[in-house]
TrEMBL record:
GO terms for MF: DNA binding
Organism this protein belongs to: Cupriavidus taiwanensis
InterPro entries with a match to the protein in the record: CB, DNA_brk_join_enz, DUF3701, Integrase-like_cat_sf, Integrase_catalytic, Integrase_recombinase_N, Tyrosine_recombinase_XerCD
An individual GO BP term: DNA integration
Domain Core-binding (CB): 170-273
The keyword Transit peptide belongs to this UniProt entry's keyword annotation: no
Calcium as UniProt keyword: no
Residue ranges that the Swiss-Prot or TrEMBL entry lists as coiled coil: none
Designated name of the protein: Phage integrase
Amino acid sequence: MRDHLVERVCLANPYLSQTLADARRFNRWPKTAIDYLVRAADTDFSRPQPEDPVSAWLRPIVFRTLRAEQIHTLAQLQTYIASRGKRWYLPIPRLGAGKARAIERWLQGHAATLGPLVVADDTPQTALLELAPDLGRTVVPLEQIGRVVPALDGSQGRNRAPGFCLIAARNDLEVIQAYLYRFRDRAKTARAYQKELERFLLWCVGVRRTALSSVGADDCERYKAFLAQPDPSWIGPKVPRSSARWRPFAGGLQPQSQRYAVLVLHGFFAWLVGVRYLGGNPWLLVHDPVTARRDVPLAVEKALPARLWETLARPDGILDQLCARWPASALAATPAAPLTAKDSDAPGAQYRLARAAMLLLGCTGARREEAARALRCHLRPVPEQVGIPAGLWELALLGKRSQWRTVFLPVRVIDALRAHWADRGHDFDDGTQSLSLVSPVVVPATPTAQAKHLGLEDGQPALTGKGFSPDGLYQLLTATLLRIADDATLPLTDVERSLLRQVSPHALRHTFATHAVANEMPPDVLQRLLGHVSLQTTSLYVRAERARSLKAVAKLFPASE
């Protein structure tokens, strides 16, 4: 009873948490702490309150899982459910649909004290819609638009070019689809362009009530202002595009993102003029949004500090410490079978997978798309040469613009890959295999994932060795970085934990580049390793002028004796 009261008071008054923790530890109770506990004891515990800890009402197996996701109170639990819809439980380990529905029923049963539980319907929307200004829901993804209302579909747009058009598109929706089709072999570019074009089409029809092919320069200026401050009804959390809760924006765009949107639309309209779909480009008269030029390039800012990366990646560092909590010796004795999230060996296999992926990106500068499609047959040891340290391996990567390049892996990365492959039950020493270097070891219970990653070998279930999607690899690394940041037992400062919670996996590429520059790698070598077309891009990492500035200022202010 006392411990329960202590936990409740700690959540209600965080400033007392350390005092109560010390009192419980040393069994010395100051009057202030006792008064708070007495008031807590007088509170009606028969009905749950929003500020109550989840541990007060839910079973240990459930509340411990929720705590790992930073859900400590019932109010936080309700907010979490409301922001993620009916499938809110999917990212939470060991919490299935049955437990989720039971939690929802319990929360709804106590709506009198907790407030109503709102669970948004995330049933996939498959029916195609006619986009019109008076449609109840004009904010829908591009793939759900069957057609635009004829008066605004652009077939009779004021800016339509007279004469013969070089493409078969009859209206604005079809011309957007034709433009995006040009990038069918560049999925990342296509997604980025689609996001900007669908936003502009929805704004033209739903807000401006005009056809895309009728907009003028004044309309473009208004849209530029809209990007900085979208209508609140256009803003929402990240959900599947098929969800009824999907919205085009997560918030107002930063100046750099506004500028990117304008550049995409400028290029799109230039293409429309070039194929003689439009008579002129109104974006030519629109100035790009003003953005501040950074003194320190963005790429440098996003890199992990050298000390933090060393703490994570060195032998016996944090990644190794996490893997050591679940030794792989028991798995190595027999061929590995596919694991489920409930298996006791799953956490160790997941951490060894994350270690291999993190070291692969952080020690080569590979993009996550490149790492996701990297194959074992493209990896081989470098022949021993004079002046070349033994143990280096070379890996051929297929990068942007379908260009191949070679990166080099130290023994540290190879050892991590070997351990990951042992969990998969695959022979790493067979260099002829067209299997992905990093591949799931715990397969989600979805039909798509099961079909891709599970198969039969000698009549027994086995992993196929097919790779992650780029987004899947992103989620794996992001989740791992968050778990590391939230693990209080690991030797990290508060600043480092905060950084790990905010950083994206792409920071590992920047980390490799800044580490290489710090060790005086020639820019042309770094350019080839990173796969940059222009040396100017690589030079963002080279801060020679910054180093000279520091040395010059240091001479003005010598260290005090």
